[in-house]
Specification:
The chain has 504 residues and is an all-alpha fold. Strands 1-2 form a two-stranded antiparallel ribbon. Helix 2 (55-83) packs antiparallel against helix 15, helix 5 packs antiparallel against helix 12 (323-344) and helix 12 packs parallel to helix 14 (376-402). A hairpin with a 2-residue loop joins strand 1 and strand 2 (490-493). The protein is 74% helix and 2% strand. The two termini are 34 Å apart. The chain has helices at residues 18-51, 55-83, 85-104, 109-137, 143-171, 180-183, 185-199, 213-232, 240-267, 280-310, 315-321, 323-344, 346-370, 376-402, 410-435, 446-474; strands spanning 484-487, 490-493.
Length: 504
């Protein structure tokens, strides 16, 4: 089964050259979002040192973005369906640019956290429209080429983000320290806003929809009740109200399902299209996305703290050390989409999970063997193996989620995909309090900090390896082969993917 065109759905115009300009614009927005989160990740220790932020605050600089992103993505996708994907995309990229300026001008950690939350909320308007605009703009037989290009953008973002963040922080341009990592978004965002108004073609859902405000409130409340106490639990001593809140979140999600089912039957305009979960590929892919997000959320924050605080490396050295990982992700992602998945199907994604787990275990062995004496060159092997495994997963995974989704639900489905990955990221960032800081004593002498962070990193790697094992098992529920589109009497692989959020 493929995306289903309704009789009223506009068909992409294959001869319209403007669609390639539109593609470049939405890919630039996706690139900006990806680079932003990787830039912030590499600069976190510098922000912590320069602003005197607590470890809880640096978790919120990352988790606050992920929380706002997750809470708003489903709503953002539905708003695009209702009011027009171009219109909401432009609102999102404009707001993202303003929020980036506020992050760069933050005068204290509290303002930075608040600005990051706003930035996440604006990204939640912008990101879901990317898939929907591409889906509405390009015919099925061109999407393989389009998402192959997306894979290249993903790789470029993965390579350039950490290195650019390291360089901007190390150079201390105009005495602004880490602030240029946010201010660099301004010219890119302004260009995207101006060009997007000219070249992106407006598209909406083929039938009139209404915004489900009760659904929006329940989604936001449930996520806050789950993620807020998880993120702040260690700092507050794991109070009883936190456990009550997390348990209550399950009741809120149960109420959400009941309400959405009733609303769908009443007026056909729910926030979450529950019928999507009756599609096996979508339900299984959503589970994989969530668990994968947890693993990435844990790894990337702990990794940068390990290198810069545990090992005492400069931000530039940490950024350069990550290059083999980024290059491997880029190379494997391109091969996965264009060559491997069309031939071997689901086995490629499962191999990716096992390869990435092998890289984590090699890294764990090296970290234990060499301790604080480990070098960047010694890290290259496990990072290349991990990057290759991740590249095999991230590029084709969303094909398994979206290949059987009807066109009229593209916005809702893409919002859900991004939501569960960001929710997984936020859960992983919250779990850093348990799997990393939870094994580090709060009162440490300066000489004890490095060894303690190295030990905490090793403990966290064990958790990441276990998460990848779970992902491997979950992947058995994905389709064995990629869906096929029939175009002009020929079958072509249906490749539908998105830019991954490596960390937020």
């Amino acid at each position: 089964m493929t995306f289903t065109d309704t009789p009223h759905a506009p068909q992409p115009a294959a001869g319209d050259r403007r669609r390639w300009f539109a593609l470049a614009i939405v890919m630039t927005a996706a690139f900006m979002d990806l680079v932003d989160v990787t830039i912030v990740n590499i600069a976190i220790p510098s922000i912590q040192r320069d602003e005197g932020a607590t470890f809880s605050q640096i978790q919120w600089i990352t988790a606050g973005y992920a929380l706002a992103f997750a809470a708003g993505l489903v709503t953002g996708g539905r708003l695009g369906d209702i009011h027009g994907r171009k219109r909401i995309f432009l609102v999102g990229i404009g707001g993202f640019t303003v929020a980036s300026a506020l992050c760069g001008l933050a005068v204290n950690p509290e303002m930075l956290v608040a600005s990051r939350i706003l930035q996440g909320a604006m990204a939640a308007l912008m990101v879901p429209q990317v898939l929907s605009i591409v889906h509405a703009t390009f015919p099925a037989h061109e999407r393989g080429k389009v998402f192959g290009l997306f894979g290249a953008v993903v790789g470029l973002g993965a390579v350039s983000g950490p290195l650019l963040g390291a360089l901007l922080t190390e150079w201390n341009l105009f005495g602004l320290e880490w602030r240029p990592i946010f201010l660099i978004n301004l010219p890119v965002g302004i260009a995207g806003l101006v060009l997007g108004r000219r070249f992106i073609t407006e598209s909406k859902a083929p039938r009139a929809l209404k915004l489900d405000l009760v659904g929006v409130a329940l989604v936001t409340l449930g996520l806050l009740m789950l993620l807020y106490p998880l993120t702040r639990g260690r700092e507050l001593g794991w109070p009883a109200w936190g456990y009550v809140s997390m348990a209550g979140a399950l009741a809120v999600f149960g109420a959400l399902v009941a309400y959405e089912r009733a609303k769908g039957a009443r007026d056909g305009s729910p926030l979450i299209e529950l019928s999507l979960f009756r599609v096996k590929s979508f339900a299984a892919g959503i589970a994989v996305q969530t668990v994968f997000g947890i693993g990435l959320g844990v790894f990337f924050l702990v990794w940068t703290l390990y290198m810069q605080i545990g090992l005492g490396w400069s931000v530039l050295r940490a950024g350069l050390t990550g290059l083999p990982f980024s290059v491997a992700v880029s190379a494997a992602a391109g091969m996965s989409v264009q060559l491997l998945v069309p031939r071997f199907g689901r086995k490629v994604l499962q191999a990716g999970a096992l390869v990435m787990a092998a890289g984590v275990l090699i890294y764990l062995w090296e970290a234990e063997r060499y301790g604080q004496a480990i070098t960047s060159w010694q890290m290259a092997l496990p990072l290349v193996v991990m990057g290759a495994g991740m590249g095999l997963i991230v590029a084709p995974l969303t094909d398994a989620v979206l290949s059987e989704v009807p066109r009229e639900h593209a916005g809702s489905a893409s919002g859900l995909i991004n939501t569960v990955q960001q929710m997984g990221n936020a859960l992983g960032l919250g779990l850093v309090s348990v799997v990393f800081f939870g094994v580090i004593d709060e009162e440490l002498a300066p000489a004890e900090v490095g060894p303690a962070f190295v030990d905490g990193f090793q403990h966290a790697l064990g958790w990441v390896a276990a998460v990848l094992g779970v992902i491997f098992l979950l992947m058995f529920a994905l389709p064995k082969r990629p869906a096929q589109h029939v175009e002009g009497g020929q079958e072509t692989p249906a490749v539908v993917t998105k830019e991954p959020e490596l960390v937020s």
